[in-house]
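Moderator note: this is an archived Q&A kept for reference. The question asked for a predicted structure of one protein chain; the sequence and the answer are reproduced below.
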Amino acid sequence: MLISKYSAPDFDPYGDNTPVEPDALWLAPVADGAVRARVSLPGSKSITNRELVLASLAGGSSLIRAPLHSKDSANMVQALRALGVRIEERDGSGAFGDDWLVIPPEELTGSTTIDCGQAGTVMRFVPPVAALALGPTTFDADDSARGRPMGGIVSALRALGVDLDDAGRGGLPFTVHGTGRVAGGAVEIDASASSQFVSALLLSAARFDDGLRLTHVGERLPSLPHIEMTIDALARRGVKVESPATGEWIVTPGTIAARDVDIEPDLSNAAPFLAAAIATGGSVSVTDWPDATTQVGAELAGILPAFGAAVERADGALTVRGGDGIRGVELDLSAGGELAPTIVALAALADSPSTITGIGHIRNHETDRLAALANEIRGLGGEVDELDDGLRIVPRPLHGGVWHSYEDHRMSTTGALIGLVVPGVQIENVEATHKTLPQFTALWRDMVTGDGDQGRLVAGG
């Protein structure tokens, strides 16, 4: 028997209504009490892929220690290798894989095709790099990712004098005809759909002949912390980014310094684990939590207490302890939209209604996350209203059923979180988590069962 991928006929983000075999379903483990665990997580995808790009454009070799090994980072490594960058594995001291030695070529070379997979950072960060290469570079992506917004990058590169052929699509697939240089200068961009448009240009701007003066002209600019992450990474490599006004950035041309870098744990991937403490009334600690960071996931320390949780920093870890119940919230998540799926799951399990706003831009992530979250929670008996810029969640008794991933890693982890306290939740394509956390199912099961050395959970591989 086949199980339909979709439970609502008016929402079909894949566009094909392809059925799924029953053995593709992963039964989310149910906690039989309060979860108590200490979890270690691999490196940040956002930092890993920024550092890979900067190391590839640097004036010498860089060692990236404790990088994330996932589908997204593998796509980035393959893309940069295709342009002539040497990326060699080195034995690492961490639990999650080798380090990477990145050796830039004397001259980047195109005449290649790059498969972006589902990685937004690859499809947006690498085209400016390809413009600095000699020869044409064709970019394409998975069918489910071809529709992600790319117009900001396409128009900005053309405004900078780059020859880009997209057959009028304004998006993937397209070909960048690199000449080995980009003139640079002043350009306007509408980054309302994604802050990655800004980061993409800033990362390569120091290599442009005249640098870059970039001005955002859209009505809103989502996920500002990700732009700050990019500016911080550039500053650590000697590239100064001035911001004379909100939505304006100036990068002077110059050398991008080589440096060795340690990648922080991915704090956004920590979200479902920390939320598990709230969902079950337990306690979860995430180790190696940085004292200072530009990661959006750092906002969890301020967000989760709104649900009634206690948050503590001690011994290098962030610990969240759940209370007797889960309070509803009124939250503006415009600075941290990637945390929204976890926050919405907690809201669906809360004692009172919640409204989450400032997240209209997540309609353009791996899927339309607002529609997907609303659809899947309703499929389990919940009540969710879509707003222009968010969701209104009214808690209802939930029941088991199939939770669809839409090829979206955060949709998969959100279903697992609800499945902690709702028996019978089956995740379709839990392997979507391999995008940024291949060890998710092992870590999640260990957290629920309490396996590991005194509750310290470290996934191998």
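Archived answer notes: Residues 1-23, 452-461 have pLDDT under 50 and may be disordered.
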